Amino acid sequence: MCETKKILDNGIHRNGLLIAFEGLDGAGKSTQVKRLAKYLEKAGYPVVVTSWNSSKYISRSIKRAKKGHLLTPACFSALHAADFFNRLEDIIIPALNEGKIVIADRYSYTALARDKARGIDLEWVKRIYSLSIEPDIAFLCNVPVKIALKRAMKKNGNSPKFYESGMDVSGESDPTQSFVEFQGVVNKSYQDLVECENLVPIEMQRNKDE
After folding, report:
1. Considering the entire predicted model, what is its pTM?
2. Which of 4, 104, 139, 185 counts the most CB atoms within 10 A of its CB?
3. Dist. CA 95–CA 92, nearest whole Å
4. What are the tens digits of pLDDT across the range 144-173?
């Protein structure tokens, strides 16, 4: 995984900052993204927040397909890549050119970790996301899988979601067991990225203020 290379600032004038937050579902990263954005805006900085699977052109199709459990791993990977690069072109790069601070709730590292866990050819994924740009800093919100499961169940109503549990590839009928197994593989991929992609780990077992 350490061979991943990205094209740095290809064709853009980076006047702003790109900050990324990564982590398991239920790690608490979205909470910290919102808090950081609020803090920076209060301090007078122009801030843009962009989230995984939020492209105005792609995200609705992904959500409909997820609802019907229609996505194969390869299709899931390709649609997420389309979503990512649409946001990169329409949101992230223009904001950086304008000198804004862009906070990404998930970045290309999500694809590297999740797609690998779903059995997608990692070299193929690397080649796609080599066209992205490096964040100025990227945080990995670390939390044990069982705590992530507890938080995901609280958020989703006593059961983790089908795809966040990896039930499309695990073969498990129990979503909680599938979540532990799948997110455990994703977590291992994230830890590999800490060593070779300059992800900065943050321990998330503390309360949100800490």
Report:
1. 0.89
2. 104
3. 5
4. 999 999 988 888 777 888 999 999 999 899
